[in-house]
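Input set for joint prediction.
Command: fold jointly, output tokens.
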Amino acid sequence: MTQSTQTLPTHDEIRELTRSGLAGCGLDLDAIAAGTSATGVHLRSPITGQELGWATADTAETAQDKIGRAQAAFQEWRAVPAPVRGRVVQRWGQLLEEHKTDLAALVTVEAGKTPSEAAGEVQEMIDICELAVGQSRQLFGKTLPSERPDHRLMETWHPLGVVGIISAFNFPVAPYAWNTALAIVCGDPVVWKPSELALLSALGADALLTRAFEECGQSTDVNHVLVGGREVGEVLLDDPRVDLVSATGSVRMGREVGPRVAARFGRTLLELGGNNAAIVAPSADEDLALRGVVFAAAGTAGQRCTTLRRLFVHSSIADGFVERVVAAYRTLTIGDPSGDGVLVGPLIGRGAYDAMQSALEAAVAQGGEVLCGGGRVLEAEAPDAYYVEPAVVRMPGQTEIVHEETFAPILYVVDYDDFDEAIRLNNAVPQGLSSAVFTSDLNEAERFLAGSDTGIANVNIGTSGAEIGGAFGGNKETGGGRESGTDSWQAYMRQATNTVNFSGELPLAQGVEFL
Ligand code: UN1
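tokens >
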């Protein structure tokens, strides 16, 4: 039997955790939660499902005002030397380190993550700050040989303008920080529309950034948060003063964001849904594969964009391996994410629970067998919170439902016989974020890395838990954007190609003669 903790925190305990997390970030819960249901954003924890109050939302006018202030700040900020801009990010990183527990507590309260995973998310913020500080001295272009004598040809990078960020509830602060730390060193102000489901984490992260700006003696108009739902996000999409919209969320959301911003020739950076797969080959170290699979599939209650959702196991080992996965699932403790030994917290809410149930029904209708999980637990203790047992479903093939991303812990298992067939199955979905192979066969590993069409492809590591040093993002319906490491900084800058003539004459390119 899967275990669940029998006790959930009381509402007062959640409130206290929230209050102290916010206080650590210099904020006051009562002041934030002083809005009304008429004009506000509902503050709620998925741990108990109970409300923490209402925060006053932005209107279209106040949102536009913030964008205007950001745009005005751009003129000043872009003129600050990049390494000096980097000092603000360096200070932000230090403050995040000092207040890691405070911010992680807010992530636990709002996203339902275990303290270890919540701290890991804040660590991603600290890591990207470190990377961005280094990057602030390396916003380099290229110098190229000109075809003309005494000419210099070069590419240079310049601050872009206001960056709009839209982020999701499941990683309420890390993807925001990937964007923000780089945008700031690149000379861009940021206007952030966080998920209204995780507003307090957002306000905490932003408050620490504002403090960093203040302490460094720089303008506090470079960073802004928009409070509200869809309507407020739409202001960012449509305002021509927002040069880049970087959005994390569902494919459905991306389908709206992409064309709408493109219609005004704005730029987008999209990090959308994943439907990530792992292949377990006969030569795999099964102990290692088991741990990799269970963390990637059931960790974070299946609510990562990198969550493992499809597992292809070679038919020669499938029965035994799947049995071990199911046995491991039965040892997972579900419940209060801060509880002792708990590894699986709540789903974000009723919508996620309903989507999980419909997907399981569809899977069964399509010939699947639910080997474990799927049921709700702790319903009596917290009727408005949605705790589920992570599910493993053995499928007869990659049926229609397996092509969909359901943002809940369902792992579909499909047997394969031929390695190329497994790679074909891996690629045969519309999403393209992350994939993995577990194998000790070098040829298979290399064939997988060359053949998998996802933005992230791993060997002997699960699909989730990427480090910030590599570019993060996916292909196909995942949206094509790349965030965090390597060259991702270029998305936040305007590129120019420059030709300088120091010949005293005017030779034309391509040998053209004129005048
Ligand atoms: C997300 O779920 O939106 O690779 C981001 C990972 C994390 C980031 C996930 N570093 O799982």
